[in-house]
Write the structure tokens for this entry.
Amino acid sequence: MIELLVVAVGGGVGAAARFMVDGEIRARHSGGFPWGTFVVNVVGSFLIGVFSTLFFTLTHYGVAAEDARMLRFALTTGLCGGFTTFSTATVESIRLAQSGRMRLALANALGTLGLTVAAAGLGIAVGGVFG
Amino acid sequence: MTRAPHRDWRYVGLVALGGAAGSLGRYLLGGWAGALLTPLTVLFPSTADTVLWFPIGTLVVNVVGALALGYLLEALARRGRETVRRRKIRIGIGTGVIGGFTTYSTLALETQQLLADGLGWLALLYVVLSLAGGTAACLGGIAIAARAARRRKGR
């Protein structure tokens, strides 16, 4: 039951942060490429990698397993899950393709995929240093 | 001059509320969709060397969310000029609920975890199904909204 509250609060904070960060980036880059969502997704994927290792780090330093598991859940499924978005990234790639900018569409779709997976791997490696 | 929505706390609050609901939906539907794989675990049982798993929950959530966002944004765009009410729907439901429902970070993390588990072919299947399925579903959502709009005009 507490999981439901935790994921809702984390997801709400994450989504609001995405809205603000995306808006600020958008205001500075009015060109064709959707940098806002792109940056949010890569940063969020790095963070989820770091947070995914948190359980081992926290229990290593004596935090109870139950608390460590809940904090990891709040930050990964909640915060990072709400912060990053797949649907908007998909819509933005399709819009680029529909406006004839096929190369930018592919760069957005494949670039987001490649960089988010790489960022998550980097996050896991960075988080592992503390564990 | 009015504030940009992302600096207006009323809109930020709307996105937070929507994102909370969407994330809750992602957790619940994702967990439920995980059960879809149960029959396959009988056909492809894990062995002592490899523990087979597949993140079907995130895949289902992301494909469903891509369809929903394609539909919503196309339906709103076809209704014409963005009124305050339509902007609240676009930002609250689109950016908040559907944006919070779908996730890219979990997709990236699960791909890394599949790779770490030595299941490279399932990692590849996961990203291909996500991108192809998400794109097809989103185009489907756009097409459904476009057809509904044409029908409305034809009446």
